[in-house]
Input
Amino acid sequence: MIWIEILAAVVILLSFWSLIPRDEWWFRGADFPRLQILVLGLIALVLLIIWDQPWDIWREIIFIGLIAALAYQLKMVLPYTFLWKKQVKQVRHAQLNPDQQIALIVSNVLTPNQQYHLLIEQIQQHQPDLVLTLESDQKWQNELSVIEKDYPYCVQVPLDNLYGMHLYSRLELKNTEVKFILSDEIPSIHTTIILPSGQPVQLYCLHPKPPSPTEAKDSTLRDAELLMVGDQIKDLDQSCIVIGDLNDVAWSRTTRLFQRISGLLDPRVGRHYINTFHADYPLLRWSLDHVFHSTDFALVEMKRLPHIGSDHFPVYVVLQTDHIFDQLQEELEQTDADEHEAQEAIQEGIEQAEREEKIVTDEIAQDYKK
Output
């Protein structure tokens, strides 16, 4: 049964493939299916143990390598289970204060998806303060116009390139900007929310390109955009929330670096996965849609919402801010090496964006000459 050893070898290869410090999609892609690799590894381990054949040196090497691979995968995914210490406190019933709360829905709607009513029904059911849609085009904007009476503050960026973005808010928005950080095709929304208590909260809505053969050949621009926002957040002296489809998983090198650089917390740590993609394939799911927040926020509620016809599930999160939480919760420790790595990644992203812009400019110039 040589296929058992082959399965184990594949698990070992994929487990340590992601440790290679390269940005190409065929390296970074190994960050995503860690749960699936872990399950396959456990199956291979059991089969390797019960395999009724004499142990030889090759089988022993495979066994040791598989144990190391499984230990590494567990290290990466266990923080997002109840077995780990919670990074974000739960708001107790006696502490609930609606004036200090913010409820939000984040939903990558999938541009071709026409089941608009399903998302609208969820919005009407949960009545969040904020709704962020991603991949929303002009058709989605037209269909979502029915909620505008309840959400007087709107930021609408309808695009046909799968990177449109719409933000609807019951709460007042100030100093709103739509920025194209590293690409003229990829918008992000930066704004300040005013809670019912009058407290301002800085909000960043992001949706960078994923590293894939059909999108971006590497993760350089995605990583740089996220880290540029994190670098900006670390100098803020106010409450902050980052939401969106980051096209990266919570346990990736870049996302963990972003947390250390920005000082933001992840409410999933110590609780459970919120695997939002792919909605149609239960065995191939991971967490691409995120909500990070500053240490003065604690968690009231967090859950994945039902299917809306997209390839992503929506996420519903309720947070509450209080200076007490700021004293109880600690941001992740940042090192000088983290700062150096972040600045290096940001610089690489800026340089790549400049090269790509020059290529586009040169192509336009050549077409004009023709």
User: Anything to note?
Assistant: The CA atoms of residues 84 and 290 lie 19 Å apart.
